Amino acid sequence: xxxxxxxxxxxxxxxxxxxxxxxxxxxxxxxxxxxxxxxxxxxxxxxxxxxxxxxxxxxxxxxxxxxxxxxxxxxxxxxxxxxxxxxxxxxxxxxxxxxxxxxxxxxxxxxxxxxxxxxxxxxxxxxxxxxxxxxxxxxxxxxxxxxxxxxxxxxxxxxxxxxxxxxxxxxxxxxxxxxxxxxxxxxxxxxxxxxxxxxxxxxxxxxxxxxxxxxxxxxxxxxxxxxxxxxxxxxxxxxxxxxxxxxxxxxxxxxxxxxxxxxxxxxxxxxxxxxxxxxxxxxxxxxxxxxxxx
Length: 294
Description:
Layout: E1 6-11, H1 20-29, E2 34-41, E3 44-45, H2 53-58, E4 62-69, H3 74-87, E5 91-96, H4 104-115, E6 121-126, H5 137-143, E7 146-150, H6 153-156, H7 160-171, E8 181-183, H8 190-202, E9 207-211, H9 218-226, H10 241-249, H11 264-273, H12 276-293
Parallel strand pairs: 1-2, 1-9, 2-4, 4-5, 5-6, 6-7, 8-9
Antiparallel strand pairs: 2-3
Helix pairs in contact: 3-4, 8-9
């Protein structure tokens, strides 16, 4: 399982979200796969992650460490991120925004420093790429394993549907997984919070997250809990559901990991279960017989 799969919530200031163990207990009750905890700001390390990571792991939660990136001190930022990994973080997210527009060299330098850490790496940035053509989307997408666009539909003055469509249309061209971040602050409704998850799930996206815990009241957090998003790649896209169910019923597929990669050996097993390999053999015998008759 990739660490960004499933349903997550971002945490900015842990002390404003509650006692660490209470946050963990609530996260489990909300059926979260993990939490994204702020671990650095520029080159400044935030030690708050240390108070929650062991409790979260004991509860089966994945902990991502994120930091706001300025791009002016690549080695300092990477060192702060390294401290997050040493504290127990499972993966890293670079929050890269306005400081990178028109500065592709900053992106190259920061990503080079982070690659040396050897940890799963994602980047989070503007929700709609077409509004920020000066941002180095291609550079980040080539170096990271997942894109996490900030799809804050309420800020955009858009419906959830339109905001996600605008975001995905711009990001899918870069060829890496997309796991959008939705909005929990201001006057977004519970229905919109759930709708965000439904659209992403039906689009076959591996994961979602919401910003942020401290900005959400109990009604919004309850909506996150009601939003169904299985942990791992267990979501079947609408367009594939009928065929997937038929494949499971016939024993061709075992029903797990519907969006996983198919290797050649897996394909051979599927073809064999379908009887296609024997059919090819029989067909070849027919061809050979006809040749002999000629």
